[in-house]
Amino acid sequence: MNLLGIFSQIEKADPEIGEKMDYSRRKMLKTTSVAAAATPMFFAAMVNKAFAAEGCAGDAIAIVKYALTLEYLERDFYRAAQFKAGLLPSGTRPYVVQIAKHEAQHVDLLEGVLGIKPNAMQPKYNMATLNAALADYPTFLTYAQALEDTGVRAYKGQAACLLEEDTATSRTVLAVALRIHSVEARHAAAVRYMRDLRVWPSGGQNGTEPDPKVYMNEDQGTQGGANLVDFFNMQENKMKLYSPDMSTRSVYESFDEALTAEQVLAIAGPFFAAPM
């Protein structure tokens, strides 16, 4: 089942959705061969297959501990920047202070989920790596962007794991994770803005980065089995707006890919004195 087939099944379930689509797209969907749904659960099954859990940090509690370790790092990274004399130019401190407060509250929330005392799981850091990341303001922003974009993709990577576990605990953890996930995305956008970059990940638009693994597999032109780059190029060509570079980039920017726990640890690992 590709993306066109999924839209076809949605249209069957909600006849009014056809009126919400433009004529050309409805025509394309209706004239494309699609597989018929075998059961009412077909759509959910295909979504689960497309976003199958992999690279899980463990069960729901292990995932909370994994997320908490990353939140400790982000909180302490911004706090270190906040208190390093001469690092932050005038006018940038409010951004950094606010992000540090958010990360501290994320730590508090995750510690509350685990029922542990404040800083009970506080990790030890590799101070050489941390100090290098705070060497100067541009370097700090480079690492801040990497940590934020990695954090967003880390939460996304564990969402499928929590859905697959499907217990009362995993559902609670998923709700907590989603509350944090969107805020981390806003942090990433804020840091990109501070670097005078586009506020979403895009091929060739990420600036200098400390580790290319941060954007591993980010540039995907195919989503849900459909080649969206070719589709949008075709649509733009029909409207005499053909611009393959723009179409490709806009597709890349419209979707965010997950990172497995192993991929995240490979990126964040150098910050820690011992393995996470």
In short:
The chain is 62% helix and 1% strand. Helix 5 (60-83) runs antiparallel to helix 8 (137-165). It is globular and about 55 Å long.
What are the main properties of this structure?
276 residues; mainly alpha; two-stranded antiparallel ribbon; 12 helices; globular
Structure description:
The protein is an all-alpha fold. The chain has one domain (about 1-220, about 255-270). The protein is built from twelve helices and two strands, in the order H-H-H-H-H-H-H-H-H-E-E-H-H-H. It has helices at about 5-15, 15-20, 25-30, 40-50, 60-85, 95-115, 125-135, 135-165, 170-195, 230-240, 245-255, 260-270, and strands spanning about 220-225, 225. Strands 1-2 form a two-stranded antiparallel sheet. Strand 1 and strand 2 form a beta hairpin. Helix 5 runs antiparallel to helix 8 (about 135-165) and helix 10 packs across helix 11.
Topology:
Elements: H1 3-13, H2 17-20, H3 23-30, H4 42-50, H5 60-83, H6 93-114, H7 127-133, H8 137-165, H9 168-194, E1 222-223, E2 226-227, H10 228-238, H11 244-254, H12 261-268
Antiparallel strand pairs: 1-2
Low-confidence stretches: 1-51
- Please provide the ordered H/E string of secondary-structure elements: HHHHHHHHHEEHHH
Q: Give the helix tally.
A: 12
Helix/strand structural class: mainly alpha
- Topology, number of strands: 2
Give the domain tally. Answer: 1
Instruction: Classify the beta-strand content into a percent band.
Output: under 5%
Helix content: 55-70%
